[in-house]
Amino acid sequence: MVIQIIKKDQGIVRKINENYQVTNFLTKEISENLSLAVSEATNHSETTKNTRSDRIYYVFEGKLIVKKDNKEFAAESGDIIFIPKNTKYCFEGTFKAILINTPPFNPQDEQISKL
After folding, report:
1. CATH number (domain holding residue 34)
2. Residue 101 in contact with residue 49, Cβ under 8 Å?
C-alpha cells in the first residue's frame, strides 16, 4: 500500500446533467475498497439504486433530502446519510456532499430510474 495525495485539480468531473455533477477523486483504479467523490447538485432530483456498494453522503453545504418508502431523511451541513447497497431511493436538493462508495463506484452497478 502506497500513501497518495490526490490534488483538487486531479478530480475527474462527471457531469450527469445541467443540475448535477460528480467529481471523482478516489476511484476503483486507486483503491479496491472504496471510492470518494464530491457530489454537487442544484434543484436536482433522481431515483437510483447501487446494486453493489454501500453509500455514504457527508453533506458540507446545502440540504440533501433522501426519500425511501414514504420516509424522508433531510441532511444539512455536517450530517451523514448511510444507504445500504440494493436500496432504491430518491435524492434531491441543492447541496455539496462527499460521496463514499464501498466497494468502489462502478457505473455498471448504478440503476437510475428517473432524472
Report:
1. 2.60.120.10
2. no
